Amino acid sequence: MRGWARKELFDSDTVMRLGVDVGGTFTDFVLLDDETGDIRVNKCLTTSGNPSDAIEQGMLELQQTAPNVIAELDELIHGTTLVINAIIERKGARTGLITTRGFRDTLELGREIRYAPYDIFAEFPQPLAARHLRLEVNERVRADGSVLQPLDHAEACAVVRQLVELGVESIAVCLLNSFENPAHELALKDIIATEAPGCSVSISYEVLPQIREYERSSTTVANAYVKPLTDKYLTQLSGRLGALGFGGRLFIMLSSGGVTSVETAAEFPVRIIESGPTAAVIAGQYFSHLFEQPEMFCFDMGGTTAKSCLIQDGVAGVVQTFEVGRVQRFRKGSGLAIQVPVVDLMEIGAGGGSIARVSRMGTLQVGPESAGSEPGPICYGHGGSRPTVTDADLLLGYLDENYFLGGQMQLDKTAARRGVEEKVAAPLGVSFLQAVWGIHDLVNETMAAAAKTHIAEKGGNPNLVTLAALGGAGPVHAFGLARKLGAPRMIVPPNAGVGSALGFFTAPRAFDLVRSHKTALDKADFGEIEGLFREMEAEGARALRMGGTQESITFSRSVDVRFVGQGSETNVDVPDGDFGAIEQKVVRAEFDAVYEKLYGRTYPNSPVEFVNFRVRAGLPVKMLDLPKMSGKNSDLEAARKGERLAFSGRARDFVPFSVYDRYRLFPGAEFAGPAIIEERESTVIVGGAAQVTVDEFGFLWIELE
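RESULT FIELD:
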């Protein structure tokens, strides 16, 4: 039994949920008994060829310690990197696009902005639909929704047949102004069903009925590109789970921080692009509420990447547009634009499996290439030959080669040292110690620089944040990151190595919808807008009920408003009830208040207009009650495993670190660094001049001096 779990077996009449987070290197499992709060965890290597292999393996391993648990599961909540990996690795379906005549090249024209204006060699990502697979039809809808040119049915049929002859597996449809009048897109959907019955189809009116032609086209094509792959994976996963005896409901994590049914995820896979990383942010949001920490910096470092999010006043921000598949990893504008709600997380660095090498400039470089799970770091002994961050952490003494994954995986320290010496130290002409510390410290320095920028952009102060460390590699690097940030404290939850999977249990079951309809505030028909809201609410209810739920659904509404002529909008919440009964001056006052808070001033005499209308449909949130530690043990020496020499950045040498068994720590336990706290899924490194306290839930509170 590990972490918070206390019972030997789970009772058959309790409600049980399983969170499964498939990462680039490891697949994490958290099993929760809702009645008692008891938690079991597991971790196994991700099977990149078929992620469901690792899911089945991990669930069977859990069942060895909790007999018949698979059959007793009520819910399985899954976060996956399948969609984003398919886009980055270009492993999606052969996709065609049907668009209005004259708009064939929208995907390549984009916003006509160079992300690196002084780099004549700057490249842009290739569209997911090749140009010869992008065909046009004669039709035209005006901005107000009226039809200027009817769809030519015969031509549309010929275009669909042409795409079939070209071997497309999925078709995206994105016609001009279809968000105001979808008649032509819906007609094309029917034609595709007739002319290409085995072909997957995505129309922009269903995927993203919103203005901005490039973003709408890019998002719809991305949905079409990954839809067949996602549908196949989720169908296969559902079948394998059923064969294991699972009879509960399967939910998928949304990029926006909610969870949805497997049916909705299969229909709109573009909404689960950031499915996995989002869970860590939702966990951090829960910790922020639990401990009343107004400024929390959530730091999740796994085997492939490190991501972060600033949580302010218990809320993680949500953005409406983000990028995937960047040509230059940290260059905004170098990727494919996707316009769906996404938790505002930022990739700030490499992961444990990121490869260290000498750049063409003769300097040390870590990442972005990762060894992943296959072959993995050199020390895994699975055929890896290039040194990684995990190899460096092992050689610095931070990891115990005999206790990785609780001793289930023996690490090869000799091979790791040989790799660092041959591939990094010798080419750079530096000592082994300089090379191995350089790898670790460079990662921390890179993450700190990116984190400071991220925090500043959100109006935060790095000297005030509480850093929450999650992920297998997060607790190893969090102390060094916190010191470089100037953060006064950090917290590490129990089972931090699978901590992101805990976020599945605190995420709302929700679905976000948006509809564009540009109209001036003083000329808007509020009754018509109320009808629009009700249509969206009905659509949201259908999406939530795909999973078979009969629970009551709640709705929250908001509008995107801007000054007439502005290029961006400000989101404003609107009161519950009939929108038609709201006075214009109430909406205007709310907009001015939000705008002034964001930008310091407003312009009350300038006219404003509605652009987008938004609805979030949600089911009741299942609260998570963390169990408190029993406190039976009170002997700190009994939790102390001994000492291990590990590298100290301040001393620039190896010094003795006290090593503690996290499972034997107790509420109120206190000790000073330098210290190493070990648990099965992760290791916490605490440098000197720091104080560690264990709270009643088993969280480590580390105060930096």
